[in-house]
Write a structure and sequence with these properties.
The protein has 412 residues and is α+β, with helices and mostly antiparallel strands. Among the domains are: 67-134, LysM domain (Membrane-bound Lytic Murein Transglycosylase D, Chain A, Roll), CATH 3.10.350; 183-294, Beta Barrel (M1 Pyruvate Kinase, Domain 3); 306-411, Thrombin, subunit H (Beta Barrel), CATH 2.40.10. It is 16% helix and 29% strand. The chain has 5 helices and 23 strands. The strands form 7 sheets. Strands 8, 9, 10, 11, 12, 13 and 14 form a 7-stranded antiparallel sheet that branches. A 6-stranded antiparallel β-barrel has the order 16-17-22-21-18-23. A two-stranded antiparallel sheet has the order 1-2. Strand 21 and strand 22 form a beta hairpin. It starts with a helix and ends with a strand.
Length: 412
């Protein structure tokens, strides 16, 4: 019995060692074959391709196809898509037009070029993450174009054939021009109209009729006219609020109604005799009963670089008028104040026209009790940025003394 068990155990051990030897031999054979096989070339994995950061002065690449803009919160009425071929920058937190001009043009002072290409931005100081900014390429100006556009003047003393009969031509000095108003001035200022009764379109109510009186950005309002009166979705209107009637400070004649622009609305839906709109731009409260007139984009007028007004100059032959009203009904006026004058388009006034402000005391008594005529007192200067038929709106840009309604103005 013991022998049988011993044989059985011995048999198991023999099978175990025999199997182990076969496996070991197969492993050694495989290793030998691997050693004899030629080594495969090991190629390092190529790093993933990444878009290089644009260098300073390099524009974004053109879009290969039309791009849909992701919905995001913004006060700007941004476009929902951008056409193929446009060079696009999507705003991130911290971006400004100044910085984008520095990044793409190497010159931050060229930011108006970017602003001009993105008309949907009403205020250059406010852009929001997600807003699409088209970066227009700068068009180089050739020397031939510069020569054509640069006026020249002749220097006396030259010989015939040497730069012309009067001498060699030299470039005339270029007149510098500066913006005289901001978008706030253009779209939020007041002006005088003959009669507001001609305006029939008004704010009928709001989505929060009983809870909110002063309406502002993104609020929903209702018009008193609709499809039957020609109102369509997408139409834009300027909101006008009447302040009061204005009488001339000297003649006391009625000049009309002083109104202010409080914002801009866009129609989102129309009914037969009503319409629904949203406030898209706001600079003051919109209230029920305010007037609505079609929105018209305005260009910022430019001011030529003229020398300061001569405070000792005498009256000339140009058209003359008066300061008839000042913003907020102020009576003592200083620099940068907005004023209304009774000179308008019919008098030859245009955006950029400069007016001399002065005061006259035609005569005074001298020591002999005889009246003597005295010269006018020049107070300052106004530049006009908005013009109506008989009145215009301007800003005081230079002061020698305070001004007030009733002071005289003369076209410079």
């Amino acid at each position: 019995m013991k022998r049988a068990w011993l044989k059985l155990v011995f048999g198991f051990m023999a099978c175990f060692f025999l199997s182990y030897g076969i496996c070991l031999a197969q492993t050694e054979g495989t290793q030998t074959e691997s050693a004899q096989a030629p080594e495969a070339a090991v190629t390092p994995e190529a790093p993933a391709a990444t878009s290089p950061e644009p260098t300073a002065g390099e524009l974004p690449p053109p879009l290969e196809a039309e791009m849909t803009i992701a919905e995001h919160w913004s006060k700007n009425p941004y476009p929902r898509s951008v056409a193929a071929g446009s060079r696009l920058h999507v705003v991130v937190k911290g971006d400004t037009l100044w910085d984008l001009a520095e990044r793409y043009y190497n010159n931050p002072f060229l930011w108006p070029q970017i602003w001009d290409a993105n008309k949907y931005i009403p205020n250059a100081h406010w852009i929001y993450p997600g807003d699409p900014i088209v970066i227009p390429p700068l068009s180089p100006i050739s020397e031939e174009q510069i020569a054509k556009e640069t006026p020249t003047e002749q220097v006396p003393g030259g010989e015939e054939g040497e730069g012309g009969p009067t001498g060699p031509a030299i470039p005339a000095p270029q007149t510098k021009r500066y913006p005289i108003a901001t978008d706030t001035d253009l779209y939020c200022s007041g002006y005088i109209v003959k009669d507001t009764g001609a305006w029939k379109l008004k704010v009928l109510g709001s989505e929060e009729n009983t809870q909110k009186v002063a309406l502002s950005l993104f609020d929903i309002i209702y018009f008193n006219q609709g499809e039957a009166e020609g109102i369509s979705p997408g139409d834009e209107f300027t909101v006008i609020h009447k302040i009061r009637s204005i009488a001339h400070p000297i003649t006391l004649a009625n000049l009309g109604d002083y109104v202010i622009q409080t914002g801009r609305v866009k129609v989102v839906a129309t009914q037969e005799h009503t319409a629904t709109a949203q406030v898209t731009f706001s600079c003051d409260a919109t209230t029920i009963g305010d007037y609505l007139i079609p929105f018209e984009p305005k260009e910022v007028p430019l001011l030529s670089d003229l020398p300061p007004v001569d405070r000792f100059s005498q009256e000339g032959p140009n058209a003359k008028g008066y300061i008839v009203f000042a913003k907020d009904d102020l009576q003592s006026l200083g620099g940068e104040y907005q004023v209304q004058v009774d000179l308008g388009g019919k008098d030859g006034v245009a955006p950029g026209t400069r007016l001399v402000v002065y005061r006259t005391d035609r005569s005074l008594y001298d020591e002999t009790k005889t009246r003597r005529d005295i010269p006018r007192k020049v107070i300052g200067e106004i530049v006009i940025f908005s013009v109506q038929e008989s009145t215009s709106t301007g800003r005081i840009i230079q002061m020698y003394d305070f001004a007030q309604p009733g002071d005289r103005v003369e076209i410079r």
